[in-house]
Specification:
By secondary structure, this protein is mainly alpha-helical. The chain contains three helices and two strands, in the order βααβα. GO terms for molecular function: zinc ion binding.
Length: 74
């Protein structure tokens, strides 16, 4: 996998902040999805847009999980 023309270190720092509260499994699934996107791309390059799309999906899944758990606790 190649990394596209963006500040990968800065992106990782941002991901660490945004995914605060995620389980290790959720983070692993997010990164595996990013890896799969890069492998599926035409040139095997991971872009910032790919990460952003997979992050959006992961945030939505996490939101649903948190809501589901809160509902179960009632």
């Amino acid at each position: 996998i190649k990394i596209g023309p963006f500040d990968f270190e800065k992106k990782c720092e941002s991901l660490a902040q945004v995914t605060d509260g995620f389980s290790g499994r959720e983070i692993a699934k997010l990164l595996a999805a990013c890896q799969a996107s890069a492998y599926a791309s035409e040139d095997g390059t991971l872009t910032e847009e790919m990460i952003d799309k997979k992050l959006k999906d992961a945030l939505e899944s996490h939101r649903k999980k948190v809501a589901w758990r809160a509902e179960e606790e009632r």
